[in-house]
Design goal:
single chain, about 230 residues, alpha/beta, 5-stranded parallel beta sheet, 4-stranded antiparallel beta sheet, binds calcium ion
Length: about 230
Amino acid sequence: MQIKKLVIEDETAIGSMIKFALESEGYQVTLTENGRDAQDALSRELPELKLVDWMLPGTSGIELIRGFRRQAATLRTPIIMVTAKTGEEDLLSGLEAGADDYITKPFSTRELLARINALLRRAEAFDDGEGTLEMGDIILDPASHELTISGQSVTPGPTEYRLLKFLMQHPDRVYSRGQLLDYVWGENVYIEERTVDVHILRLRKLLRKHGVDNLLQTVRGSGYRFSTRPKE
Ligand code: CA
């Protein structure tokens, strides 16, 4: 099966460069220039990965990413944000909107491919069939990707899902940001440690909605742990 990618980029030169680089690697690529065309493409075919430019005519890339994360069909597809913005606040707001990773312009095709492959590997590594994980009122089924909290079906973003799964597989242990980056994101991926905090925050928000955020505990000076025991 060919892995399909959707690229949303209005700058023709960059869009063509990405399309060419990905097709040379054997990926099937749909290139669109704005959000409306992207939605059209999505109604025909769902990609395994999306690359979304931040600055787009009409709806911005950030708004598009937020929208993708609200739709059941596109909720779990990994997203890489492509941006000329390099400010930390800008990048964090991209991650908060729902991107799994970002790449800043100008970038080499080598860097782009490395990031795509790392993201797909991470998605795959967490696809393995395993027994159901249960902690308190939280039930996670790795085989079906179903998450149930207090009897309600919940759909986290892909990174929050992986993070929660990892923490549920290793309860009561404290993990530093660096360790979580290695275990959840993969050892060869360069991502800042603050990224972990962003995803922890998102996961905590989701758990709070269902009244179970007390399980996700911050251990001052050390990191995070997932536990049904009260916080020390
Ligand atoms: Ca642009």
